[in-house]
Hints:
The protein is mainly α. It has helices at 7-29, 47-53, 64-76, 90-94, 97-106; strands at residues 38-41, 81-84. It is built from 5 helices and 2 strands, in the order αβααβαα. It has a two-stranded parallel sheet with strand order 1-2.
Amino acid sequence: MSSPLIAPYSASKFALDGFFSSVRKEFSMTKVNVSITLCILGLINTDTAMNAVAGVLNAHGSPKEECALEILKGGALRREELYYGTPLWTSVLVASPGRKLLEFLSLRNYNLDKFTSS
Ligand SMILES: *[C@@H]1O[C@H](CO)[C@@H](O)[C@H](O)[C@H]1NC(C)=O
């Protein structure tokens, strides 16, 4: 989600979501067995993040070591999305059923013969 004071960061994360969600669909349509895990992370206690929010945000960052482990687990388990360091209800609120439905419906309009998996 977008947040104030981190526009460049938000822009790069939205770009990654768009790019890798497109690639995931292409892999799926061409039966390429590569998984892509989108990591939705809350505030992590890296030096960079904690310095960026110092005096601005009243929040504790989640431990970076545990975050790294969760990312590795999510990738190994081939999860489409993983949430770490976010409030419990985040996955429900962020998951957009409208977006997923539109993406699914739009796939009907593609000519699968034009896709190659080379
Ligand atoms: C895809 O790759 C995973 C990991 O190597 C494997 O477990 C799974 O059986 C593969 N699925 C297909 C449909 O080949």
